[in-house]
Each structure stands twice: as structure tokens, then as C-alpha cells.
Amino acid sequence: MARAPPAVPAAPPPDIGHTLIMATLQTPPPTAGPAPGVEGPPPAPHRAPQKPPGGGRPPLAVETHGLRKEYGRKVAVANLSLSVPAEEVFGFLGPNGAGKSTTVKMLVGLVRPTAGGGSLLGRPLGDVGARRRLGFLPEQFRFHEWLRAEEFLNFHASLYGVPPRERGRRIADVLQLVGLEARAQDTLRTFSKGMLQRIGIAQAVIADPQLVILDEPTSALDPIGRRDVRDLIRGLRERGIAVFLNSHLLSEVEMVCDRVAIIDRGMVIHQGRLAELITGTLEAELRLDALPASLVAALEARWPIRGTAGPASSAPGADGAGLWTLRLALQDDADLPQIADLAIHHGARLHALIPHRTTLEDLFVQSVENHDR
Amino acid sequence: MTLTWGAGSLGPGAGTLPTAHSHVPRESHELTITHSHLPRESHQMNAFVIAKLTFREALRRKALYGAVALTVAFLALYAWGTGYIVRELDEGLPQGLARLASQSGVDVRLLAIGELLLAGLYAVSNIAGLLAIFMAAGTISQEVEQGTLQSIISKPVSRVDVVLGKWLGGAAMLATYVAITGVLAAGIVYWRAGYLPTQLPLGLLLLMLKTTLLYSLTMVGSATVPAITTGIVMLIVYVVANVTGMIEQVGVAIGSETMVRIGVIASLLIPSDALWKMGASLVQPPNPLPALGIQMSLGPFGVVNPPSVWMGVYGLTYTLLALGLAALIFSRRDL
Ligand SMILES: Nc1ncnc2c1ncn2[C@@H]1O[C@H](COP(=O)(O)OP(=O)(O)OP(=O)(O)O)[C@@H](O)[C@H]1O
Ligand SMILES: [Mg+2]
């Protein structure tokens, strides 16, 4: 995550005047924490500008109950109940055809639910006013190709009711945000696919949203663009903006999401805080030539044993044949040397000590396969 | 170019986007914007935003270049031909006709020139009618198929705004076309022959209504089925409306009640030809034949029995109902 500072020349940026003006306008800065990262400390506490002064939980950004969509006989979404807290990043996962895009389309008013309902930013689904603070990047990002990038953003800003005098600045800001400032005067027809996805992200965030729904926002992006989108999502969250992210890139989801739901065949099969869903995520696998009872007792005293296998259980000639295998649940990588010390202390020879991290991918694959059974 | 991605900032609400490299001193990268407004709760404005886009699209897409080029060519030929025809008329009428004219006191020159003007307007009316069908057939369905509406409907824009906006934009475009070409055609006749009907503005207004009616009706199809289906169906409907309109004229002349009834029923179903007749009857010179007991128009473009003003009211109601139906259908459609 930690990106090396860009090779910025010592000279001030070209738009220094702009920057200075903006700096003087600055209101109290958001909590400046260390950049949230995979293995870094937990994300800095979120700034919460919308929280009611009396405290209490912020309202949900999205809530659905029993949401269902049938296309003729085909059930695209069966029965979906979701709660997406405000000011969090929500990962919405599921295999192809699970109903993710259909759900999102019901949320943003493109598709009418067959049954069930819900709310978006505190207003019932389908309410036009709620979309004032909603940004959306469709899965199929097709736009009016005959418009120039700047005209396109101007049009979309005006649909949000952004006053004309404010649009120019916002257009410049979002173009810079997605790295397309040099293409402002080009028609979208001349854009590459990734550039279209970028301009699609720009229109989703142009009007100070409270909730941004992104349906596979990085499907067409280069690796740098993907990382940039991750940074953008973290930036949105830091500003207290909820993000609803459809994605198949689970490593990406793991990096940015506070909470995930995994759906399959139109139903939620897992929903919760990411940290809780993949708790006890670290496992150590030990391979030993012997397994004295004293060692087992000593290990067990500190770490739950997840499983043991004797030398007979592995095929001759296979990796680790003739060895004992033991799996421990760890809290911390730092425990690994202690495990090694204990093994040696109790007279066992340690052939391997392998840390395994349960990933979101493991959880995804397991739960979808179980569900499909 | 991507280094700037995380470095910009957004929106009012003092929004600050942390940079991709947010450990860099913040002041150097943050843009903070004063909280200046919350968008007003008026999304009826959005119909106008969409109308403007529709109008601009019609101008910008090269599809209409052909129509404009051919219209210019047509008007040039029309001016050239009208000049010759008027010169021929002024050189004298064929003997038989001259005798008939002097006996009955009919101004044959005026009638011929009126017929010429009607011919020009008939061309304008039909070109505009076809343009209406072609423009409206894809206006919703193509955007649904391409998915360009997804990023629009997910904004504070109601489905009605979209239909109304597209209708306003298209109707404005077509009305402009009818106004410009209609006035040019009438101007050419006035320049060459000195004939200018006083009711021309009302006549052109009725042509605009006819065009808008076709546009609205085609939008009902566009909200429902693919553009090609709508286009084909509407072309057939339009041709049938024109033909039944002629049948009605013939029926009046030969006294066939059945033919007249066919025409009346057809014009209730699709009032496009009836609106043309109303407009044409306002710009044609007074027809002397009915006074002589002959229920015929002079020439193919003239009108012998113009519909009553109620047809105008009916056409307007029809147009608005079709628009409402298009909005209703589109509101229920999944995108
Ligand atoms: N317009 C439609 N008509 C009929 N069936 C549809 C329609 N749209 C979606 N479906 C069906 O609904 C199911 C869910 O589709 P959806 O696009 O929501 O899946 P998804 O989870 O977004 O998949 P992916 O990961 O591939 O994007 C699929 O089986 C699909 O075939
Ligand atoms: Mg999808």
C-alpha cells in the first residue's frame, strides 16, 4: 500500500495559486491517521460530519429486506436483506450471476424489485430525492460518446443540480482525481476502455455524494489504476462517505472493506465485519519427526490445536511423508519463533513451520462451495 | 498521469481526499472546498437539462447532416423551379384554360401558385414527419440498449424527466426545422410570385403539431421495443395515414360515404394527415370549385374539406396522451 512519494520536482506545482487558495479555505482537517493498510494499524477513526450531535449510531446508508427480482421465470435475486452502515466500505461479493448487479440496479432505481424493499440514505428505494447524494458507476459503463469529457461531466453535474458557477472547479477536481485532466477536451469516443471507466468514476463522485456504489470499478483498469481506485475508496471513507463495492478482486476487497456480504444465487450466505469473518485467520503448520506428549501440552497451553496427523496419514514419498503434522491457530506472526523454540526444547526435530493466513478468498470459496452443495 | 489520482479533492462539504501518498504533508495536496450549497429540491429542471442534451445530440450527430444537405438542395431546386413556372404562367395560359378562367372569373394564376406553395409545404411536412419518426424511434430504446441511461437514471432524475426532456428536445428540433424550411418555402414563393398567405404562421404551427404528434407516438414505441421495430411500424402507420387521407379526399369528390368514413376513422387513429390538411387549408388560396358545385381541390396538394378546429384540439390531446403513455411505459421498465 505504502506508495513511494512521487518523484515531484522541487519546483512548486503549476497550480500553486489554486492550491494556496484552497489551503486557506481549509476547514478542520479530517483525522490524519497513518494511512490504513493491510498489515498496518487499524484504519484511523472516521471523521463523522453527518453524525447527529447526540451521538448514537449513524443511519444506514443502505438497508434492504427480502429484496427479490424475477425476470420471467428466472430469479435473479431471491431474498436479500442487507445492512450497510454509513461511512463504511461495504464489499458485495458473489460468483458470476449471483445477483450483485441486479441488486445494485434495484438500489439505484434502474430495476423495480418484484418483492421486498429497503431504503437508500434514509429514503425508500426508488425515491428520486435520495439519489441527490448517490454516486453510481454502472457495471456496463457506456456514456454519450459524442460528448467531450468536460461536457460529459458538466452534464452529469447539472443533473445533480450543481450550480453552473461551481461546476468548472468540480470538473477540474474530478478530472485530476482520475488522471484525465489532459483529456478534458477530447470526445469520449476517443477514450480507451480504462479511460471510460475512469471518467465513469469521476461522474460518480462529482457532486459530493454520501454513498458511492461502484459495480466492478476496476474491471478495465491497469494495475496502477486499480491501486488508485483503492486509494480513492479509502479517501472517500475518510471523508465519511459510504462505499458499496461490487468486486471479484478479493484481495482488493480485503484491503479496503470494513464489512462484506457474500451472496450466492440471490441470497446472502455471509455478512459481517471483515475482521470478524476472517478471524483466527492465522494458522501455523508444523512438521515434526516426533510428537511428544509434553510438546503437545506445551503448545496447547498457548495456542488452540486445529488438527494433528500422524506419519501414517501421508502417502509415502509425499511432501512431509513420515512426519507428524500439527496445525495451530495463532494470533500473531511473532509467535512463530516461540513455537520453534518449544519444539526443539521438547526434543522434536522441526522440519517445517509454515504460517497460513486464511484469506477472504478461502472464505469465499468455502462458503460458496458449501452453499452450492 | 495517474499519480494525481488520489491527490485531488471533491465537492463541497469540506471534502478532502487523502492522497495516494497521504503520509506526505497534507497541506500540500489537499484542496478543500467551502460548503456552498445543497442542490435544490427541483428536479423538474432536469427535463430541460435532458432536452438541451437531446437538442445538442441531434445537432452534433452526423445523422442529420444528410437531411439538412438534402433540404438545402430541395429548397434551391424549389426556388429555381418556382421561378420558371411563374414565368411560364405569366407568358399566358393554354387557350382552353384561359377561356374557362375568364368565363368563371377564377384567378388561375393564383390557384397555380397556391398549388406550388402547397407542394413545397407538403415536402416539408413529409420530410419533417419522417425525421420525427427516425429521431424518436431510437431516442429511448437505443439508450436503454447501450446502457447510457444507467448513469442518468441513478441521479436525481425521474423517468418522467427523461421522457419529457427527450420530447422537449426533439420537438424543439423538429419545430425549428419546420419553421425554417416552411418560412423559406413560403418566402421563395413570395419572392418569385408575390403570393403570401396571411394564415401562414398558423398553418406552420399545425405542421409542427403534426410533427410533434408523430414524434410522441413514436416515443411510445421507443419506450417499449427496439428502434428498428418502432421505425418500421411507424413508417407503415405514416404511409397508411397519408393514403387514407387521400381516399377521404377522393370520397368527398365522388360522394362515397364509405371512403369518407375510412378517412375519418383513420384520422382519429392517426391524426397526422388530418393536421396537414388543416394547415394546408389555411395557406391555400380560396378554392372556387365548391361554389361551382364541384367538391374537388385544385390539384393533389389542395384540400377540399378541411377538418374542423376540433381536429386541432384532438391532435394536441392525442400528442400529450401519447407523451404520457411513453412516460408511463418507461417508468415501469427495467434498465
Ligand atoms: N435483464 C435480465 N433478464 C433476464 N435475466 C437476467 C437479467 N439480468 C440479469 N439476469 C440474470 O440474473 C442473474 C443475476 O445477474 P447479475 O447480473 O445480477 O449477476 P452478477 O452477480 O452481477 O454477476 P457478475 O459477477 O457476472 O457481474 C443471472 O443469472 C442473470 O442471467
Ligand atoms: Mg455484475
Are any ligands bound, and if so which? adenosine-5'-triphosphate, magnesium ion
Quick one: which chains have the greatest interface?
Answer: A-B, 81 and 61 residues
Beta-strand segment tally of chain A: 14
Taking all Cα atoms into account, the compactness measure Rg of chain B is 27 Å
Q: How many helices of chain B?
A: 12
Determine the structural class of chain A based on helices, strands and strand pairing.
Answer: alpha/beta
Task: Tell me the number of strands of chain B.
Answer: 0
Could you describe the largest sheet of chain A, including whether it forms a barrel?
6 strands, mixed
Per DSSP, what share of the residues of chain A sits in E-state strands of 2 or more residues?
Answer: 15-25%
Q: Mind describing the biggest β-sheet of chain B?
A: none
The average pLDDT of chain B is 84
- What is the element string of chain B, with H for helices and E for strands? HHHHHHHHHHHH
CATH-defined architecture of the largest domain in chain A: 3-Layer(aba) Sandwich
What number of domains of chain A? 2
Helix proportion of residues of chain B, in percent? 55-70%
Oligomer: heterodimer
CATH topology of the largest domain in chain A: Rossmann fold
The stretches of 5 or more residues of chain A where confidence is low (pLDDT under 50) are: 1-57
Q: How many helical elements of chain A?
A: 11
Q: How do the SSEs of chain A run, as a string of H and E?
A: HEEEHEEEHHHEHEHEEHEHEEHEH
